[in-house]
Every structure is written in C-alpha cells, then in structure tokens.
Amino acid sequence: MARNGLACAPAEKHADITGALICGGKSKRFGSDKRLYIFEGKRLFDLGFSKLGEVSDDVVAVFREGIPAELKNYPAIYDNSKIEGPIAGLLAALAYTDRRYILSMPCDLPYLSTYFLRFLCGLKEEEKIVIPRTRGLEPLIGLYPRSIFQRLSHYAQQGGRSLRQFMDELAGDHKKLIRPAMWRKGGFSASEFKNLNRPSPI
Fold first, then answer.
1. pLDDT in tens, 97-109
2. Which of 40, 193, 58, 185 is nearest to 113 (CA)?
3. Do residues 116 and 190 lie in contact, with contact meaning Cβ atoms separated by under 8 Å?
4. CATH says 17-193 is which class?
5. Tens digits of per-residue pLDDT, 49-106?
6. Closest by alpha carbon to 96, among 68, 72, 76?
7. Environment class of 22 (CB within 10 Å of its CB; exposed 0-12, middle 13-18, buried 19+)
8. Residue boundaries of the structural domains of the chain
9. Rounded to 10 degrees, what is the CA torsion of 90, 149, 175, 103?
10. What is the DSSP letter of 66?
11. pTM given for the model
C-alpha cells in the first residue's frame, strides 16, 4: 500500500496491539459532547473507533465518567478517577489489555488517518513508546508497551500530570520519537494532528 507515492506499512491487523480510543475530555471549549459531533457524516467517536479497528481486532473506548447512551454498545472502560488528565486513560488501557502494546488516539482527531496509525505500528520496537513529534510531542497518539505501566503509574502517583514531562524524563532506550522529517518522508502532513476544538473545522 502507498500514500503519496511512498511506501506504507501493510494493511494488517496487529495481534499484539489493543486500540485505545481516549474519550475522557469534558469538551468545555467545544460547547457540547464532541464525541457525538457529526463530522463529514459520522460521529467523531465512530471515526476514531473505526480507524483503530482497521489496525487491531481489539479496540476499547476509555471514558472518564458516564458513557453517553448512544455509545453504550461499544467496548468501554473507565479511567482512574483519582488521576487527572490523559495519563489516567492510558493507565486504564494498559491495565485492561493482555496484549503487549496499546495504540492510543484521542477521539477529536478526525484528520488522523489509518495510514498514519499503521505507519506508527510499523515502527514498533521492543518495549519502547513510539510517538510522533510535531512542534512538540504528541503523546496521546502513540504506541505504548504494556511494560511501561508501572513506570507511568509511579509517575502519576507521585503527582505527575504531564505526559510530555514524563516523556522528557524517560530514558532514551524506552522511547522512540518520530520526528517531522521522518513522518513527512512517509507521505504525511501536519494536518494529521489537527484536533477539533470548535464545532466547525478550522
């Protein structure tokens, strides 16, 4: 398979990866539940869940609190209410899976393509977090080994809230940062990472 004339990872489902759709945001800036917002004919939630389903046959949605009635039929778990921020969602997914990795993405990234998710999975390395860098790190779009759970949990229990800070402090042999030159070479643009914070796309 190719994108923009450049090779991409094959269209396969990874048996060692669980897809985790992070849905815990409160949508304060959006003004309504963005998970249910219709974007190009589909709910944002459905778009994200479907894309992860193209990469793995095991996908779960991670919620902070009550699940909307419209989404009750999807596999779902709750994050740890004692921990603030997206770290809670990642920890819940890591604790849930019995596979070696989780592939995470937030539900408000309608431009993030299945091609990019496959691209990330194709860069998988033993026991390493794989995340892209744009102007800064994009830690919610990432491949996380289950073995990182204890280290991330300890960081959160010590009061850590910033995933970017966690990544900065993490030793190099535990992370693989995909810099712009690399993902651009793969045929991708910065629009992949544009999130939807208002009802009308920017």
1. 999 999 999 999 9
2. 193
3. no
4. alpha beta
5. 999 999 999 999 999 888 888 999 999 999 877 888 889 999 999 999 999 999 999 9
6. 76
7. buried
8. 17-193
9. -40
10. P
11. 0.89
